[in-house]
Amino acid sequence: MEPNDPQLRELLREWQTPEVPSSLEERVLRARQSWWSFLLHGHVRVPIPVVYCLIALMIFAGWRMSARSTPSVPCVADCNHAVTGAC
Amino acid sequence: MNEADFRDAFHEHKNVVFRFVCRMTGSSSIAEDIVQDCFMALWRKPMAYDASRGKMRAFLLGIARNLVLKRWRDERPPQALDDDAFVCMPLDVAGQERAEAVASAILTLPPLQREAVVLAEYEEMSLEEIAQAIGADLTAVKSRLHRARQNLRRMLEPCLETKGVLHGTK
């Protein structure tokens, strides 16, 4: 390793790494996509807590929608909602 | 940076970045992921590279190095990246090929010692280039290299006198 330690240097050189896979270039070039291509083919990593929040938000929104669309008890003829316009 | 520049940079530096990450992590699949992230960082922020401050190789190795250390921190409980007092014991290399023993020894080093020795030995970078790539001063690089060498010598002592498969008692 040191200039005066050729023995260790020679030993270290025996560890060779594999060749770069040929698929890596295609992979990198494919990943380097434009924004409109990203909109069509891209994907994003979403943290699990964010997923939980989104699910809770959707459940809450669904519950609110269903609560609004549930028909209320019809007013009786002599209620004063006709005046206030609540019915 | 246009597409042609990017392709040129990729073709010129993919091997060195891949080899470096392979030796830092011991895994070619992790190396593929990190090489991709490294070049994506260059593509997204080409202005981050300032040619007046050094070579593209050192810049890309710096990005790769940060990605490796981030992964290392994410996967392990908090501990020092470079423990001055870290002393590697001799490896039990009986029955191992010499190349396997070398890989084990290098992967046993603390990450900051490992990166210094990988860049100096396998990529034949100067101390200044290493300092630039890893964002450290020369004194720190020299010190890490010195400790890495001592540790490697200690771990690989049985290999230094033998050739081929190592025999010994377990």
Give structural notes.
The complex is a heterodimer of chains A (87) and B (170). Chain A is built from five helices and no strands. Chain A is an all-alpha fold and 87 residues long. The longest helix of chain A has 22 residues, at 48-69. Chain A is elongated. The model of chain A has no long low-confidence stretch (mean pLDDT 78). By secondary structure, chain B is mostly helical. Chain B contains seven helices and no strands. The radius of gyration of chain B is 17 Å and the shape is globular. The chains are: A mainly alpha (87), B mainly alpha (170). The A-B interface holds A 1-2, 5, 7-9, 11-18, 20-21, 24-25, 27-29, 31-32 and B 6-7, 10-11, 14-15, 18-19, 22-23, 28, 31-32, 35-36, 39-40, 43, 98-99, 102-103, 106, 117, 120-122, 145, 148-149, 152-153, 156, 159-160.
Largest sheet of chain B: none
What form of chain B results from the Cα inertia axes? Answer: globular
Q: Give the quaternary arrangement of the chains.
A: heterodimer
The separation of the N and C termini of chain A measures 89 Å
Radius of gyration of chain B: 17 Å
Total E-strand runs of chain B: 0
The computed structural class of chain A is mainly alpha
Taken as a percent bin, the fraction of beta residues of chain A is under 5%
Q: How would you state the average pLDDT of chain B, rounded?
A: 85
Number of H/I helices of chain B = 7
Greatest interface (CB-CB under 8 A), with counts per chain:
A-B, 23 and 35 residues
What's the mean pLDDT score of chain A? Answer: 78
Shape of chain A: elongated
Structural descriptors:
heterodimer, A: mainly alpha, 5 helices, B: 170 residues, mainly alpha, Rna Polymerase Sigma Factor, Chain: A, Arc Repressor Mutant, subunit A, 0% strand
In short:
The complex is a heterodimer of chains A (about 90) and B (about 170). With about 90 residues, chain A is mainly alpha-helical.
Topology summary:
The complex is a heterodimer of chains A (87) and B (170).
Chain A (H helix, E strand, L loop, with lengths): L5 H7 L10 H9 L3 H7 L6 H22 L11 H4 L3
Chain B lengths: L2 H23 L2 H17 L11 H20 L22 H11 L2 H12 L4 H8 L3 H18 L15
Helix pairs in contact in B: 1-2, 1-3, 2-3, 3-6, 5-7, 6-7
